[in-house]
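Late entry, written up from scratch paper. The run itself happened at the end of the previous shift, but nothing got recorded in the book at the time, so transcribing now.
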Amino acid sequence: QVQLVESGGGFVQPGESLRLSCAASGRTRFDTMAWYRQAPGKERELVARISSGGITVYADSAEGRFTIFRDNAKNTMYLQMNNLKPEDTAVYYCYGRKVINVEGAAIDAWGTGTLVTVSS
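Output as recorded:
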């Protein structure tokens, strides 16, 4: 079974940067990948999404500060986070989706998360 493993989280001060990585095991190549996050007491929310062709979508809170990209040769996705703010504090989850038929049925995969803490 394919696995997604996040890394790169940590403790930083406001204004600093982090780069998160998401490595996919096996030979599965996802059509769409994304980063979600969940802060304490809140629902999981989309941070950024990227298609197999490199088309990206960002949450308003991430636009201009975060960049999502993927290295297909390494089957790895990244989230570059600049100018981090305390409200970015959350567990960040990697997500992948592989469409399997014309009706849109898909296989979804989730990582187990990496913690980002932004605090002074």
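The CA atoms of residues 6 and 22 lie 4 Å apart.
(Scratch paper discarded after transcription.)
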